[in-house]
Each structure stands twice: as structure tokens, then as C-alpha cells.
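REQUEST FORM: STRUCTURE PREDICTION
Request ID: SP-0412
Submitted by: Lab K.M.
Chain count: 1
Length (residues): 471
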Amino acid sequence: YPKVDLDTLFAAVEKAEVQWRKAGAEAWVGVSLEILTRINKRSFEIAHAVMHTTGQAFVMSFQAGCPHAQDRGLEAIAYAWDQLARVPAKAYWEKPQGKNEPLKMEKHYRIVPRGVALVVGCNTFPTWNAYPGFFASLATGNAVVVKPHPNAILPLAITVQVARSVLTEAGFDPNVVTMVAHDAGDDTAQKLALRPEIRIIDFTGSTANGEWLEKNARQAQVYTEKAGVNQIVIDSVSDIKAVARNVAFSLALYTGQMCTAPQNIYVPRDGIESAEGHLSFDQVAQAIAESVQKLVGDPARAVEILGAVVNDGVAQRIDAARALGPIVLDSQSIAHPQYPLARVRTPLIVKLDSTDDAKYLKEWFGPIAFMIATDSTAQSLDIARRAVTCHGALTLSVYSTDQKVIDEAIAAAEDSGVALSINLTGGVFVNQSAAFSDFHGTGANPAANSALTDAAFVANRFRVVQHRMHV
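STATUS: Completed
RESULT:
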């Protein structure tokens, strides 16, 4: 990929955005929709690009990288249009003055985009996490600079290529959308983020980098999705096998490398009640472990669920987590039948106690889960609430046959600001988040300062400037 001189780039962007900013809401949204339509037609190409840059299995690469990501982009455009349409072009104002003629004014309103937007891509879901910010900014009249993760450039390079082609066809300067590719470990991201021209930043990645942006990129409106500790509270179940299968799939899917993947599983140390009778803590842990083993027992099937390990850090964390406590299920290497050099790992499950909070109250990104023995479900919910409040989370899940416990879990989720899933046993998993019906993130806990997608995600990307006169 070409190396870009930033001064030259921003001079070109500044020139391009003059016409784009004046085009108005219908043009911004219309062009955005056409870009999305053209991206959709290249879905299979993008799916292969996602697969080879992220390690996702092909089915996930296609679903999450293409139609699901495009859904999120369309959702952002829809919210943008909704907010833009709330602003009238003009208004007539009149104020009575008693016996005198009333005061009369005509007021005109112009939507003014905030400025150049920077989209910082991530390694694991380059399109799914980038499209909401990309289209929210573009559809509200802002020029967009895309900075892909150095390990996942191609999916966003295709996206930028499509966008520039559509802009050109529509009569706009293609430099309304540009891309900056860079090498891992250099300071390009920091230099970009601190440019005075950058007024919006969308970021998905580590807590350290997200907090650096929030602290230092003071000239910009910064939207971040960072790390979190996702959790499952098991109180009681009607079908332990169904619960274990659902949890096992959530742990194995894309080798636990999803921002929504569960990590901490809390079970009372005295066990739980089920339709099969009382189950001890170890029986619950073993049921989940056995379900994982069955799921990944056939390598040809397993690799289509697990995908591959995305970077060295994941493999290193698996090794480090092994030393934290007794191993319920060890992580294994699997040979990929199509790609022998692919690094494939199965989930690791480690047994911990609630007193080991220094070990489990942080994110262990990857196929790492902790079965945590607590004094009671009440303590499980209390720990979960505290973890979300202090460390952030994108998902929380509860299993219970007691409506009182479910109500308490709902209260804990609302108090701490995290999405809650209740008694998932079928074909829906806690990892999944659907556009137009699920809010991904809440902006109410440290894992993310915004939600995908709500009005707040788009409304601060533009301002309304008025002029008025007597008539």
C-alpha cells in the first residue's frame, strides 16, 4: 500500500470537503447508500479478505464481515437521516407587539459537518467495527480518513476504493474518503489522531489506546469501544445440556476473539438446581467442558467454528492463564485441514474462587474462560455488577428458573449499564448483536463511551448554524 504524506493528504481532503460540505443531507445520505450497495455486491471478495486478515472462518467472515457489517452501516445512515431531517431548512417567526406591527423574521438553518473524521480499524472485525462510524460521519457531511489496523488493511481498502469510485461518479472529489495504511509499531496513528483537522475519531481496540485517544485527542469528538470483562451468572437451569451447549459455542466461536465473548462464569460453590436434580459446581463446570470437547472434537468441523488465532498475544495469554488455577479443560492445538500453517486453538477453562478477583477482573482476550465459585447467586450478581462498573463489559448473561433472580439480574444490568441476555439455550448466543434491534454497547460503562447505534452516536457529528433577518 502507498505511504501517504500527511500534510499532502490533509491538503487534498480540505480541498475535497468544500463541495461535499455544501452538498446537503440528501446528497450525503444518497451517496452513502450507493456506497453501501456497491460494497454489498463485492461481499464475497470482502469475505475472503476478512478471512485471511483476521483468521475468522469463512462463514463468519462472510456473515459478520459483509451483511452484518453492512446492516450496521445502514443503521448508522438511517439514524443520521433521522437526525438530519429533524432540522428544518427555514422558519417564519412572528411576535405580537400589541398595537404595533408584530416583529417578523425569517430564519434559515444550515447543517454544518463537524470536520474530518478518522476511523481507526481493528484487527478482528475490520468492517463490522468500522462501518458504523464510517457511514455515520459520511452521511452527516464529514470527510473520512480510514486508518486500518496494519494486519487487516484489505477489507477497508476495498471499502475505500468503492467509496471513492461512487464519489467520483456522483461528481464529488474522491478525496472525501481517503486511507492511511502504515506499518505496525510506528507512530502514524498518534500523528493522525492529533492533527487539528481531525474533529471526529471512531476507535475500536485496546483500553490503553482508547484511553490515550480520549485523553490526548482533545480537539476531536472521540467514540471508543475498548476492552471489557463479559460474564455469565448461572443460578439454576431447566436443561443443563442445552445451557452447556450454548455456553460452549459462545466460548469457542472465533476462538473467543470477539468483544462480546464471555470470560467469567459464576456458579455458587454449593451447586445449582436443575430439572435433573441438584448439580454440584464441578458438575456444572464439567458439563460445559464436555460440551466444548464435543464441539471441537472433529477438527474439520472445529476449524469452521474456531477460526485461527489472530496474533501472538492471544497464544501467550493462553499459556499465562494456565498457571492461574486448576485446569478444567486445557487448550489444544488443531491442525487445519486446508491451511496447515494456521494457528488454531481450542478454549481453555480454568477453575477459580471468587476471592481470586485480581486474576479474573481484567480482560483475558482469547479462548480463555474462568469457572468461578461464589458464595451465592447474590454474590455472583454483585461481582458482575462491580466488574461492569469498574472494568466495563459489552455483555452479561444469566441462567435462572427463578423470576426473582432474573429481576435482580435485570436491575444489576441496568444499574451498571450493560446488555443482558436471559436463559439463552437455542440458536441465539450472547456474542451476537443484530443491527436495528440490538444496541451494541451502551456508553454507560468503561468498555465503550457510545452505543451502536443510537441518536447520540450520530447527532454530535454535525452542528446547526442559522442566519436570520427581518421580513
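NOTES: The chain has two domains: 6-226+448-470, 231-422.
Reviewed by: T.R.
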